[in-house]
Design a protein that fits this description.
Uridine Diphospho-n-acetylenolpyruvylglucosamine Reductase, domain 2, binds uridine-diphosphate-2(N-acetylglucosaminyl) butyric acid, 7 helices, Uridine Diphospho-n-acetylenolpyruvylglucosamine Reductase, domain 1, alpha+beta, 338 residues, 4-stranded antiparallel sheet
Length: 338
């Protein structure tokens, strides 16, 4: 375990891409008051790290890091079917999901096995298999580092979108999330439609699934498709799924009849970036130690000694060739730290 350090620190074990990167200093925040020495720091003068599962780090990071390790799960409201939890931002997301299932508090089952911490979850409004964090989010407690003030951001204030929130925009580089409040239910309200979920449940002969069955199914699908970062460095989906308008979609569909798409409201269509990348010839690509995953073209992987620069170069090449073929510009889902 590395302790607070003001000499350059290697971050290889602190990012899921397993990139060899150094930063000028790292401070471990285990309780809210550990943030006091940093009050008054200018905005954008530091990075906030959870478990490093959605960042791509360049070899030399210019800013010090605050690594959030605030733990604890409290039940702060328990009335009839409704539960509200207050969770330390440094808790591991999947351990929280398992804890809620053990207690028979439901709502997080489709979000099983998402890597990272609870404090990172609202930043990109984590989502998977038909569910998104915003559905159970109540509020989060934050510290505004430049003036040391405590602020509370509720669901409306968080301005959630697809892999998006106020934390990626107006509040970026200014705050640390210390606790997250989530509303769960004792009554299951299962989401069973997404992707392979119904098929797997049928194959198992499960007709009336429990939330635990749904969680186990999601775990199975993720384990089958997504590389385990402990074996192969990666940060999950590297790009967001692009949203295009109906006209552009219809034009593309006439050229590519197999183009998969998910209809959103207001004439908008979401296209799987994985399909665009695969059709552009990048599935299971590898150059040096940087590549795309064989089962999921959307996931960039570090086969061992890739650098942040090599992975960014690969992402840029993928983006350029998808743009050339489909006139769709892929946006990063992963944050780049320089
Ligand atoms: N597809 C391909 N080729 C592939 C993989 C998928 O063509 O190599 C197509 C298929 O048509 C499939 C569609 O893409 O039906 C969607 O694939 P999938 O359900 O696997 O989901 P995704 O859009 O690739 C998103 C999230 C994942 C999340 C899954 C499941 C984003 C950027 N990614 O991926 O989240 O686990 O849905 O809900 O929205 C993450 O954010 O790191 C992440 C892994």
């Amino acid at each position: 375990m590395i302790s607070n350090s003001t000499t350059p620190v290697t971050l290889k074990s602190l990012n899921s891409f397993k990139l060899d990167s150094v930063c000028p200093a790292i401070y471990f925040i285990r309780k809210e008051s550990d943030l006091r020495p940093f009050f008054g720091w200018a905005e954008d003068s530091f990075y906030v790290l959870g478990e490093g599962s959605n960042v791509l780090m360049l070899p030399q990071i210019s800013k010090p890091i605050l690594k959030i390790e605030i733990k604890g799960i409290e039940i702060i409201h328990d009335v009839e079917d409704e539960i509200i939890l207050r969770i330390g931002a440094g808790e591991n997301w999947h351990q929280l999901v398992l804890w809620t299932l053990e207690k028979a508090f439901f709502g997080l089952e489709n979000l099983s096995l998402i890597p990272g911490t609870v404090g990172a979850a609202p930043i990109q409004n984590i989502g998977a298999y038909g569910a998104e964090l915003q559905e159970c989010f109540v509020r989060c407690e934050c510290i505004h580092i430049p003036d040391g003030k405590q602020i509370s951001i509720n669901k409306k204030g968080a301005n959630f979108g697809y892999r998006d929130s106020i934390f990626k925009h107006e509040l970026k580089g200014k705050i640390v999330i210390t606790h997250v409040h989530l509303k769960l239910s004792r009554k299951p309200n299962l989401k069973l439609e997404y992707g392979e979920i119904p098929q797997i449940l049928t194959n198992k002969g499960i007709q009336n699934p429990s939330p635990m069955d749904v969680s186990q199914t999601v775990i199975e699908i993720r384990n089958n498709k997504l590389p385990d970062p402990n074996i192969l460095g990666n940060a999950g989906s590297f790009f967001k799924n692009p949203v295009i308008d109906q006209n552009q979609y219809l034009k593309l569909k006439s050229n590519y009849p197999n183009l998969p798409a998910f209809q959103l409201e207001e004439n908008q269509v979401k296209i799987p970036a994985a399909w665009l990348i695969q059709e552009s010839g990048w599935k299971a690509h590898r150059k040096g130690d940087a590549g795309t995953h064989e089962k999921q073209a959307l996931v960039l992987v570090n086969y061992g000694r890739a650098t942040g620069h090599e992975l960014i170069a690969l992402a840029d090449d993928i983006r350029a060739s998808v743009f050339q073929k489909f006139a769709i510009l892929l946006e990063n889902e992963v944050q780049i730290w320089t």
